[in-house]
Every structure is written in C-alpha cells, then in structure tokens.
Amino acid sequence: MVNSFDKAVTDLKNISNKVAKTIEWNNDKISGLSRELKTANDFYYIARGINFAIASEGALKLKEISYIHAEGMPAGELKHGTLALIEPSTPVAVICPDDYTYRETLSNAIEAKSRGAYIIAISDRKNEIYDFWVKIPKVDELLYPIIAVVDELLYPIIAVVPLQLLAYHLAVSRGYDPDRPRNLAKSVTVK
Q1: What gap in Å lies between CA 132 and CA 36, rounded to an integer?
Q2: Which of 50, 52, 53, 58 is nearest to 153 (CA)?
Q3: Which pLDDT score is estimated for 103?
Q4: C-beta of residue 129 within 8 angstroms of C-beta of residue 83
Q5: pLDDT tens digit sequence for 85-105
C-alpha cells in the first residue's frame, strides 16, 4: 500500500509532466498572441478560489516585465468598478479550470465579453466564449478521489505557467529584456 507521502511525491512528479505538456501545447500560440496584444494598455486577470492568487501573480508578472497596467482580482468582484473599465478588445485572462469554480467564473467571463473584452481562458475545458484558449491538462486523475481539495491545490501549479509565458512573450514583443526589469530589486543588500 502506498502511503500519503509517497502518493504526494508521485502526484508532484506527474504534475511536472503536465506543466511540460502545458508549455508544449501553448508556448508558440502564446508567443503569437503576445505579438497581437503588445500595444494593449490594460490587462485584467480574474479567477475564483485559490486561483485568485494565480490571477494576481499573472498580473504582477505582466507589470514587472512588460510594463503594462494589469490587475488580478476575484472574478466575483468584476462588477465593483472593473466592468466600467472594459472597452472593446481589452484583454481579460480568465483562470477557469473545470473545478467547482468553473461555472461562476465562466459567467463572469461572459459578462466581460458582453462589454467587448478579449477573453483569454486558461482552462482544461474549451468553451465557445473564449477568444483565445490556453489549454491545460486535467489534474483530477492524479488524485485520491476522497481528497477533493487536492485538485484545487494542484491546478494553480499548471495554470501559472502560461501566465508567466504570456508576460515573458509580451515583454519580448515590446522590446524589453524580461531578465532585467527596470526599477525592481528582487534581492536587496544594504551596507
């Protein structure tokens, strides 16, 4: 019988393979998308539950290396001001895995799209409202069926990678060196 620690190690190894698959499926597509969106002034990232942290990380990375205004927010908060900022073609990245948050997050994406947003979905489930689909693999087959919370914890490991690729490719498309962000010190030494 496999103990919980061994199962967790196996799951993490399997997730690393799924991260590699995510990069393989999407890197070239995201590079092309970055060339199309390189003149965008604003990006919004929305998600629910634990994926909200991934939306915030995606927005932060975009600001840091591409110098584009970006905000990450809980999808349910979209009505509190942000929808007023959506104009035709405003990019909205939606972290929308097929988990317990899927339907409500998709509903928020539909609201943004109805106002002209360009929907970039990071999901393992295709939907016709997406303007651009970043396909991620399902993670549920890795897990013990009785530990429902574990899949919620593993999706972000996969979903964050395409957002980092988008920030990277946008920086390069805009002529910036993503390895040398201006005005930022990631480690500080004081003498």
Answers
A1: 12
A2: 50
A3: 96
A4: no
A5: 999 999 999 999 998 899 999
Q: What is the pTM of this model?
A: 0.88
The structure tokens listed for 16 are 């690393």
Only one residue has tokens 């073609």, namely 89
Quote the CA–CA distance of 100 and 80 in Å, as a whole number.
23
Give the C-alpha distances (Å, rounded to integers) separating 36 from 30, 105, 106.
Answer: 10, 25, 24
- Concatenated DSSP letters for 99-156? STTHHHHHHHHHHHHHTT-EEEEEESS--TT-SEEEE----GGGS-TT-HHHHHHHHH
Closest CA to 97 of 151, 148, 38, 21: 151
Q: How far apart are CA 125 and CA 105, in angstroms?
A: 12
**Are 158 and 138 within 8 A, CB to CB?**
no
| SS3 label, residue 72 | strand
pLDDT category, 78, cuts 50, 70, 90? confident
Instruction: Output the six-digit token pair for 102.
Output: 């899927």
Domains of the chain listed by start with CATH number: 4-173 (3.40.50.10490)
